[in-house]
Design goal:
Elements (H helix, E strand, L loop, with lengths): L10 H11 L3 E2 L1 E6 L5 E6 L2 E6 L2 E8 L7 H9 L1 E6 L5 H6 L10 H4 L4 E2 L8 E2 L4 E13 L2 E13 L4 E2 L2 E2 L1 H4 L2 E3 L5 E3 L11
Antiparallel strand pairs: 1-13, 2-3, 2-6, 4-5, 5-10, 6-9, 7-8, 9-10, 11-12, 13-14
Length: about 200
């Protein structure tokens, strides 16, 4: 067993160990709106559930160098955003939104994604996602090098073809997850283990 003190390594070395170990990671495609009205879109794999009562999710948005990314800046300004689940049908287009564009250009337009109006917030989502969640900003924590965003889900949108009796079919959702480098994973074999009583 190799033992490594993270304080003895560079940030990049620690990053490689984290993204290579904590796999698979779900991917959130997040849309926000700038103060100038530009619909911004970007994927994030530092993403997960915080709570179901109330329904809340978390996003950790790493800084670009020493600057806050457009997504974090827009969320802090508008206090709202939309989270989409990335799946096998939209992952190619979502990947295009990772391009480093200036704030006045829309990654959603670049990728050819279709904006769709939200119900409870002003930020639009995209039609190509089978699951999207309208969120309002619940809490923000500013850490060195990243913004931790906690969002409260105020509206779910789910494709009726993947939804049955209150549950989502994981095979039909076909969510993809992030590994390290340029690698992704699809939902493979699913097995069941009953929890102890």
């Amino acid at each position: 067993m190799i033992t490594i003190d993270p304080a003895s390594q560079t940030e990049r070395d620690n990053y490689k160990l984290l993204i290579g170990s904590i796999i698979p990671r779900p991917i959130a495609f997040v849309t926000t709106r700038s103060e100038d009205g530009v619909l911004n879109g970007a994927p994030f794999s530092y993403f997960n559930i915080v709570s179901s009562n109330p329904p809340m999710i978390s996003l950790s948005i790493q800084h670009a160098g020493d600057k806050r990314k457009d997504t974090a800046r827009n969320i802090l300004t508008a206090q709202e955003f939309v989270v989409h689940i990335v799946d096998q049908h939209n992952v190619e287009k979502v990947n295009q939104t990772a391009a480093n564009l200036p704030p006045e250009q829309s990654e959603v337009t670049l990728a050819g994604l279709t904006p769709v109006d939200s119900v409870n917030i002003s930020v639009q989502g995209v039609q190509e996602a089978q699951v999207r969640m309208e969120c309002t900003l619940e809490r923000h924590m500013d850490f060195p090098g990243c913004d931790l965003i906690i969002g409260r889900v105020v509206q779910f949108h789910i494709n009726e073809e993947i939804y049955h009796e209150g549950r989502i079919d994981p095979y039909k959702l076909a969510a993809v997850s992030r590994l390290a480098g340029n690698d992704y994973a699809a939902v493979g074999e699913i097995f069941t283990i009953e929890r102890p009583r």
